[in-house]
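chain below, 270 aa
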Amino acid sequence: MATIGVFDSGIGGLTVLNEALRQAPSHHYVYLADSANAPYGEKSSEWVAARSLDLCHWLVREGCQALIIACNTATAEAIAHIRHEMPAIPIIGIEPGVKPAVHKSQNHKIGVLATQNTLKSDKFKALLDGLEGLDHNCELITQAGLGLVPLIESGALNTPEAEALLREHLAPMQAAEIDTLVLGCTHYPFLAPLIKKIIGPDVEIIDTSEAVVKQLCRKLEEHHLLQSAPPRIIHLYSTLDAEALLAHAKQLIPAAFEQHSVQTSTVFIS
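prediction:
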């Protein structure tokens, strides 16, 4: 049985934790929400990189044997440095699912909704450069989802304010007649019902949580950490308010907690 650390700027990584509990339930999970500093997508690259490394070191000190960086912005800005600093730890990042979108799109028009830091990062540019080897002729319409993460963090998922902001962000993609939409932030899947309401049922939405956890399982197996055992403990940490994090988790991924013991703590990480 391994202890898996999952961190995000806030509650968005709960989408990844939910998938991890589905695919690999027989482990301890430590979820760290850096909600005191959310959102990351509008902070400097240097700050995100330094903070992400600090959080990973904290998770390892808590006994984590593998890490998921469940934040597109942190992955884009920090994962190469974190892997260099922590070579013995399996570290799984997350990136917008552009490649699967290219394979799925029928009209070759794909929307990418992500944070501004993700879209301007070298990692995202490298991801797009890697598409050149694929047999495609796709048009990508990228849009920074400014303001969405704070709304999600506040629990305002199905509100007129959230719908109005989403309509503004999705309008260029609708005008381009996309048939596939990539959600490039782990927070955004919580808005999927509202997104579907706006763009309609014919646009396929790509979320990469399933692929991320499959990669986690491969790495756990490589390091002989993949186990079959009774479900264990989820420990939820927040740098702002652990009880609020627990309330969000119970609302957003309720089924995940049915077979797991849950503990919560508010922590200060300098």
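Strands lie at 3-8, 28-33, 66-69, 91-92, 109-114, 139-144, 180-184, 204-206, 233-238, 261-266. The first helix runs from residue 14 to 23.
thats it, cya
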